[in-house]
Amino acid sequence: MNSTYKAFWLEGGDLVVIDQTQLPFSLVTKTIKTSADAAIAIQDMTVRGAGVIGNVAAFGVYLAARESKGELTKIKELSAVIRRARPTAVNLMWAVDRVLSRLEKADAQKLDLVEVALKEAIAIADEDVIGTRNIGRFGCELIEAIAKTKSKGEPVNILTHCNAGWLAIVDRGSALAPIYEASDRGINVHVWVDETRPRNQGANLTAWELGQSKIPHTLIADNTGGLLMQYGKVDLCIVGTDRTTRSGDVANKIGTYLKALAAFDNKVPFYVALPSSTFDMQITDGVKEIAIETRSADEVLYMQGLQDDGVIGKVRVAPLETTALNYGFDVTPARLVTGLITERGICDADETSISAMFLDLIP
């Protein structure tokens, strides 16, 4: 695997992943030895982010092939468990289906299915590396254009939501890829980082990533973005996505829709960065057709963090008798999206533009 930054890697035939639930205070890893391990890591968010979920799912099929000793029927049974691990991110299903399709052809050719599955999983990861670098270059053109309008020394202020960096999509991510590219080019950027309740991926992961790369950033409460836009303190919004319809509707972390509404009202450009594997070309109405994951109420009722005594702990933030509802994602209608930043270029968020750029992906 050719990535510069790695959320996962191979060791002795097993898959090693960064345990993202332990960041930002501990950098620890887990070893994924079986397809069941892969499914659990996706489900409990040891790994998360549309791209990395897809990558781990692909390697999970390889592990299924290894533990099944190349028996295709058994591989399919084990892979079905991985495919159901989380319902919203389409990369998960796409990656499993792609590897299985390759295995079906290989089985007819009497090839070693374990070896074929491993090669296909690595190929998916390597393709993501190329894609994320292209997303970075195309997206950076937007940042560079804004930078040219700024006074000397004034940064381009970018607001993002959740985590769509290299922890989410191998190498440089999607929404953060243009920011990394801009930093490499010497463009002065500053990132407003939404905390992203209830799991705080912005506070825990995006802030950690940006800090590792020494990119200026400020953590804000989720509901601060609209005020910042009213004050003219946001030049551009870039977010990721877990599933995007053929018509340009975008499913992303809960709270994205509200940011898009605020951006629209304040005439702030709102872009969505994604690899083509995140398109679901079989659906056109995101609100009606995208399954929105409902997660544990405890994620809302409790918060985890580093306590004053240096111990990572969990505290309840709501009354004991209070119940909670925890949707993991929401859908931003295409009409609120300025454009889609993909590995093939930037296109409008509508069916005509998407179809023109990705005609080969339409079933």
Helical run tally: 12
List SSEs in N-to-C order: EEEHHHHHEHEHEHEEEHEEHHEEEEEH
CATH superfamily of the largest domain: Translation initiation factor eif-2b, domain 2
Overall, the morphology is globular
Mean pLDDT: 95
Secondary-structure blueprint:
Elements: E1 8-11, E2 14-18, E3 29-32, H1 35-43, H2 50-67, H3 72-83, H4 90-108, H5 113-147, E4 156-160, H6 177-184, E5 189-194, H7 201-212, E6 217-220, H8 225-230, E7 236-239, E8 243-245, E9 250-253, H9 256-265, E10 270-273, E11 279-280, H10 286-289, H11 298-301, E12 302-306, E13 312-316, E14 329-332, E15 339-342, E16 345-347, H12 351-357
Helix pairs in contact: 1-2, 1-3, 2-3, 2-4, 2-5, 3-4, 4-5, 5-6
Compact description:
Helices cover 40% and strands 18% of the residues.
3D structure, described in words:
The protein has 2 domains: 119 residues, translation initiation factor eif-2b, domain 1 (Four Helix Bundle (Hemerythrin (Met), subunit A)), CATH 1.20.120; 226 residues, Translation initiation factor eif-2b, domain 2 (Rossmann fold), CATH 3.40.50.10470. The model has no long low-confidence stretch (mean pLDDT 95). The chain is globular. It is built from 12 helices and 16 strands. Helices cover 40% and strands 18% of the residues. The protein has 363 residues and is an alpha/beta fold.
